[in-house]
Structures are given as C-alpha cells and as structure tokens.
Amino acid sequence: MNEKYTISKQIKILAISFMLIGLAGIVYGFVSAPSNIEEAKAIVASKSHDSHHGSDHGESDHGESDHGESDHGESDHGESDHGESDHGESDHGESAHHSVDHDKHLLHQLQNKPWASIYVPALFFMLISLGVLAFYAIQRASQAGWSIVLFRVMEGITGYLLIGCISVLIILLMSGLHFNHLFIWMDPDVVAHDEIIRNKTSYLNLPFFFIRAIIYVSGWVLYRNITRRLSIEQDNSTDINIHKKLFNFSAGFLVFFLISESMMSWDWIMSIDPHWFSTLFGWYVFAGAWVSGVTTIAIITIYLKSIGYLKFVGDSHIHDLGKFMFAVSVFWAYLWFSQFMLIWYSNIPEEVTYFITRIEDYNFIFFGMVVLNLIFPLIVLMNSDFKKTHFIVILTGIVIIVGHYIDVFNMIMPSAVGDQWSIGVSEIGGFLFFLGLFILVVFREISKAPLLASGDPFAEESKGFKYYYYD
User: Fold this and answer.
1) Count of beta carbons in the 10 Å neighbourhood of residue 212
2) For the segment 96-121, what is each residue's pLDDT rounded down to a tens digit?
3) Whose CA is closest to 253, among 285, 229, 231, 224?
C-alpha cells in the first residue's frame, strides 16, 4: 500500500511558533517606524550617536557644529548680513529646498523598512515555490524517469505558490494605494518630475501592472492545480492519456513560464529601481529560484527519509539533486558575473549606479552572497560522494538558501531603504513569519496525498533508480 505522510505535532508547533515570533517582529517594525521627518532625523541621529559615541567627530555629526546647525536653518550664517542679501537668500532657499527633499527622502526610506522586511521574505519563499514548479514541469515535459519518486514532495512545495503569490500581491497593492514608497514609479509626483520614468509609463502604470500580475499568478496556479489533480487521479487509473495530458500541459506551461517569469522579475523586482535595467535579469532571478527550489526539495526529502518515510528514495536520487544544486549554482554565478562584468566595464552612469550603491552600502553581504552561493557549493558538491551524504547536502542546502535569501535582500533593500538598512527585529521577524507559513503549508500539502505517484508509467523505473551507484 502506498504510504501517506502525517504532519507531526512538532512541525505544527515549530511553524506556528515561527509565525507568532515573526509576527511580533513585524508589528514592532511598523510601530517603531517614523511618522514624520523629525522622528526620522531622531532615529538617524541615534544611530550616529551609537556609532560615534564619545568622539569629537561624532559630536560634530550630531548637530553641534555650525555646519550641522545650518542644516536646520539655525546657523549664524543664516542670520548674518550676508544671509540677508538677495544672493544669500537665493542660496539659502536652494539649500533649504534641497534639505527638505533630503529629509523627505530619508523619511520614506525609514518608512519603507518594515514593508521591505516583509516583501523580501514574501518574495523569496514565493520564488522557491515557483522554482520548484518550473523544475516539476521540466521533469514532466522531459519524461524523466529518475524523479518520479520526488513528485509528491515537489507538489507539496508548489502548494505554497497561491498563498505566496497572494502575500506578494497584497504588498504590491499596498504600494499602489500609497501605503509605502517601495515602488517610486507608483507616485504621480515622482513621475511628473522624472523624465526617465515618465517615458516608461506605457508599461509602468498601475492598471497594466496589476493586469499582468493577475495573468502571471493565474497561469502558474492553474497549471499547478491541474497537474496536481491529474497526478492524484493517475494513482487509481491505468489510463495512459493522463500521462499524455501531463506531458502536454507541462510542455505548454514552460513556454508561458519563460515569458511570465521574466516579466514578473521586471515588474516585481527590477521596477523597484525604475532607472536601471538588465536584459539578463529574468534569467538571473530564475536561476536563483531554481537552485533554491531544488535545494528545498533535497532538504525536505532527506528530512522525510530521516523519520521513516520515502523508503523508495535512494542515494542516487539525492545524488542527482546534489548535481542540480551544484550545476545551477554555477549557472547562477555565470549570470551574476556576466551581468556585473558587462555593466561595470561599460561604466554607463544609468546602469553602473546599481552596483556602486550595493558595493558602497552593502559591500559585505553583496560579495558575501557570492561566496555562499558559488564558492561553498562549488568546493563541497564537486565531490561525488558528498552529493550522497545527507548531512553534507543539508549543510550545503542551508548555506545556499541563506545565500539566495541575501541575494533577494540585495535586489530589494538598496532601492527601498538605501543606506538605512539593517538586519534587526523586523527583518528577522519577517523571515521567521514566512518561513513558518511556508513550512506549515508545504507539509500539510504533502500529507494530503500518497507519497509515491504510483500511477505514473515510470514509477517502477524511478524506484529502481536507487540501485544505480556512481564511482
């Protein structure tokens, strides 16, 4: 009899605990966000005081110098005879206007922090589910024999896709309703004074933006639900037409996916910095989602095996997942370097600013993620035996997941919050909340169907694959 997984009480408690702790962190982030310019300045001054406490230079930064006071319009220069002259008033007016714009920008950055702290994990876990869906479709369309025993794990992970997409869409809707300033092109005042964004309004406008989003999500979820239903129906049927339908749906879906995923990455990620663009960006985002998805499949599969399930999954299946983790990590690094090198070498101001901002303000995590996403997997997973060693695959998988989370963090935060970023309560809370939600939904989905897609014509071949070993 085909076994079924029963979600354990421990998993439920763990997931709900993560969600509650995360929710508390998210609430704290919103409550502690400034509501006006004065509060924003106070927050920045407090951070500056903490980093320069006790030094004369630090005291100067806190507004005790003439230069610091001039920013607030209280310096002697503003009250002098020179300040009363026409030329002085003009200069002072321009300076004051610039100061007001800077302060307003600072306020928006700090108000964006709690929103960005939930947008990053919402997007990341949605991308994991989407990456698994693409991998699942590839296996169906290629009629691969080795991966059949992993289908129910994949279907469980893709069960998060609808909730993940809804979470992202809610945040996007809040941006469209001006509850935050994550996407500056959604602000009519910004568009009115920005020629570059104004020239993109035929594509970047709210009605068309959300129409596209609904098309993407509808296509992904429709394919997932149809194939899930057919896969379960196939367990109790000998009708080969079901297998043919799964093949046809998957082949057609991959065409839709390649277009929709690229456009999604432009809309939901790249447009957060509407002055910048990259023709490689869609592939780059897909590579990150793909390797994160395959890694998640490996981690969940090994966990289920460790508690007595998935006995038909052997070392060779884990070995193949390890090969995908290795190969797609190299593919991701190739795209990262190609995108970075070409833009950096050409040195076009509109393009290179994207990387200058990240190198200057996010230097450690910008280059650190390359180590996590390439160097570590490359060194560890190059060894064939390590790809079959569960502990090493789990360890490498955790590093890859963290590395690609930082990658998404790097995509969103510099444009959303600038140099005001941090990894604090709200950022950790956002991650824990969506991690808990992901665990709860995925394991519940896995428990809803038998763990082996036994009706698939290649099921026996896949089970037998565990007896093939590599030198």
Assistant:
1) 17
2) 555 666 777 788 888 889 999 999 99
3) 224
